[in-house]
Design brief:
- This protein is of the alpha/beta class.
- It has two domains: 262 residues, Purple Acid Phosphatase, chain A, domain 2 (4-Layer Sandwich), CATH 3.60.21.10; 112 residues, no CATH class.
- The protein is built from twelve helices and 19 strands.
- The strands form five sheets. A six-stranded mixed sheet has the order 6-5-4-1-15-16.
- It starts with a strand and ends with a helix.
Length: 382
Amino acid sequence: MKFLHISDLHIGKSVNGFSMLGEQKHALGQIIEYLRAERPSVVVIAGDVYDRAVPGVDAVQVFDDFLTALAGEEVVVLLISGNHDSPERLNYASRLLTDKRLFLYGAFDGTLRKHTLADEHGDLNFWLLPFIKPSSVRGFFGDQRIETYGDALAAALDSAGIDYAERNILVSHQFYVKAGVSPIRSESELNPVGGLDAVDAGRIENFDYAALGHLHGAQTVGGENLRYAGSPIKYSLSEWRHEKSVTLVELGKKGALTVRALPLSPLHDMREIKGELAVLTSDEVSSLADREDYLRVILTDEEEIIDPMGKLRSVYPNIMSIDFENAHTRVDTGAIFTDAETIEKLSPFDLFSEFFLNTQGSTMSEEQSEIVRELLDEEGER
């Protein structure tokens, strides 16, 4: 049986103030095209459909259009909620949608939901497990001790009575880790302090395939059968080197697994450029790629620049951030912090000095420092 594994759509997300809805529509359109070309029997959506528990109207419309397109292709859709979703909202109309072969599992009810499909090799069991936390599952398992995310997963799996001699696929949205394997993380994921949400991937190794969601970089967790599909587009500047894709899985007889990444091309890419302002804004350099890409710009000019953002955006309208890398930024600014607790302890001059460094990429000259001190003294005398 052939099926398409996708996850972490995060419909409605904005990155650095830029709405990603146009990018998301573009990616979802490519997924529909792959569906028509590859003709899988099933589409698995492994959580984080929306970016917020209460999505905006535009986000809901985009996902409704996508589901409608999937229903028109007459494939089975298996969908679970992720940690960004509202489980109850995703559950809405789920019983009615089963007639369209759309199976939605939002709020965990104490069981793994099993959907069995058949192909020439016999039955294939899909086990759906939405995102769970220890606090959300304790009430379903009596006096069983559930303190960690691993405990919660073990309780859910043990209660399902899975026969691993059969062909089984798990659809899950958790942070699975494998000893000796460093996961690819990004800034756009929710990262609990200390990895408290981590679950040992050894718990799910006996599945023929685990269609995972949560991590935004496509990757395996130890074995080829435990795979994160990753997000369909880049959701932070930390992902600018990621190659986005959806995963096409083909499961033959027991033990026969083929996995293929189908690349997704962005409407506008997210990338990083570095150099002096005059060079980066020249026609020779700016014409090398799409000027409307989402950019992190690193300026290396040594001299002070007036309104660097304005000058850059006159050429590249979708700049997300500017950083500076020059002799001035290599000074030790470790003693200056901007957290709420320490801001009150800094003098107005120190705060302005940090602001100047962050916006101009250099420290103030002695003359500039003196002007600022004089202005602050005058303000203090009023």
